[in-house]
Amino acid sequence: MIRILIADDHTIVREGLKQILAETPDMIATGEASNGQEALDKATKDDFDVLLLDISMPGRSGLDILKQLRTEKPRLAVLILSMYSEEQYAIRALRAGASGYMTKESAPDELIEAIRKVALGRKYVSPSLAEKLAFNLEAGSDRLPHESLSDREYQVMCMIASGKTVKEIADELALSIKTISTYRSRIVEKMCM
């Protein structure tokens, strides 16, 4: 039986995932968390085979939690399940130690396949992400400016691009306005804006 912790800040998403898992005889959702810190606490305290982790949650982001789990629970398979497209976060998530990356638009059958694969200690990537990874390995491929941003800088840049104010970003990430302004300055510099 594959024991799964579901970490997502949307109740309806957690309930939908639990329903999908309930229809699968070899899987069971044995825990859930509504924010990053709660996911970290539960993942380190209890035994799970797979953590389904959203990237964008209140407080600490899924990538922050993932990085900490790699040191505290290195054997826990973490499958990122996000609303963000693969182009935005997949490679960053895999570099941070994720076992796989899927968008929330994926079919339930694909999710079940991915969970089984990462529970066995393997990696899961969609065919389109596999192609992108192969393309990035080509010799001489130039890095795009946004690829030089840290994970937090990239997260802040995406939030700015979505129209959020510095204060809104600070509130959502539980950081000071000054810290977000510093991130914004670094982003402008690194992106040559």
Terminal residue distance: 51 Å
Number of strands: 5
Protein structure class: alpha/beta
User: What is the global morphology?
Assistant: globular
Strand order of the largest sheet: 2-1-3-4-5
User: Strand content of the residues, in percent?
Assistant: 5-15%
Residue runs with pLDDT of under 50 for 5 or more positions = none
Helix/strand order: EHEHEHEHEHHHHH
CATH-assigned homologous superfamily of the largest domain: Response regulator
Largest sheet: 5 strands, parallel
**Radius of gyration of CA atoms, rounded to a whole number:** 17 Å
- Could you name the CATH topology of the largest domain? Rossmann fold
Share in helix: 40-55%
Return the domain count.
2
Q: Which second-level CATH architecture of the largest domain applies?
A: 3-Layer(aba) Sandwich
Total helices: the number is: 9
Round the mean pLDDT to the nearest integer and report it. 88
The level-1 CATH class of the largest domain: Alpha Beta
